[in-house]
Amino acid sequence: MKLYGFSASNYYNAVKHLLLAKGLDFEEVKEYPSQNEDYLSIHPLGKVPALVTDQGPMSETDIIMEYVDSLSDPKFFPTEAFEKAKCREIMKVAELYIELPARRNNGEVLIGNPRCETAFREARPLMEKGFKALDTLCQPSPYLMGDKMTAADIFVRYALVVGNMVAAKVYDWKPLDEYPALKAWSKMMREDAVSQKVDQDSQAAMQDLMEYFAQFKK
């Protein structure tokens, strides 16, 4: 398998973490979002990540994660239908109500573009609802769904990379301080051996990412 993307991408890192946690063999192929025809044949929107398998390519982080999880044990998605749905619910809340609203401010945070006042005004209320919903859905003990790490732990960890970064840099806000159980969970996940490997690779890739972003500075 080949995983396309770049090591500073939080969505790429969610898939990478799962692949590493499952001990699967894969090749990393550095690729930034692109409208190049060759890459569009792999990801029809030109985004990252994308996974190329012997049967063909696929895109969208949660879809890739479900496919990867199906390949071998141990399983990170619950097998019982209700529990699997709850796992996906946690992932979706983190994506739609924390990561994606926060991402609207990335031009300011990552590139240094002028503030988008609409994004600034609209993102935080959605993020506040997202963090509150996440706290309601999860009672870490120690993982989000109990005593075993699931795909929810992996996905949410990397969704919150953007959420926490934007909260701090744009709003001078540390949302996890308001939710001690989630804060303790986040610290535990940060200390996980796979998380540390992924984080090290992400830090090493930051300079290249900044050079890539420079072309979009207004």
Task: Write the topology of this structure.
Blueprint: E1 2-5, H1 10-22, E2 27-30, H2 37-40, E3 50-53, E4 56-59, H3 61-70, H4 81-103, H5 106-111, H6 117-137, H7 151-171, H8 180-190, H9 193-204, H10 206-213
Parallel strand pairs: 1-2
Antiparallel strand pairs: 1-3, 3-4
Helix pairs in contact: 1-3, 1-7, 1-9, 4-6, 4-7
Main attributes of the structure:
218 residues; Glutaredoxin; Glutathione S-transferase Yfyf (Class Pi), Chain A, domain 2; 4-stranded mixed β-sheet; 10 helices; globular
Description:
The protein has helices spanning 10-22, 37-40, 61-70, 81-103, 106-111, 117-137, 151-171, 180-190, 193-204, 206-213; strands at 2-5, 27-30, 50-53, 56-59. It has two domains: 2-74, Glutaredoxin (3-Layer(aba) Sandwich), CATH 3.40.30; 81-204, Glutathione S-transferase Yfyf (Class Pi), Chain A, domain 2, CATH 1.20.1050.10. Helix 1 crosses helix 9, helix 4 runs antiparallel to helix 6 and helix 4 (81-103) packs parallel to helix 7. The chain is an alpha+beta fold and 218 residues long. The longest helix has 23 residues, at 81-103. It is built from ten helices and four strands; from the N terminus they run βαβαββαααααααα. The chain is 59% helix and 7% strand. The model has no long low-confidence stretch (mean pLDDT 97). It has a four-stranded mixed beta sheet, covered by helices on one side.
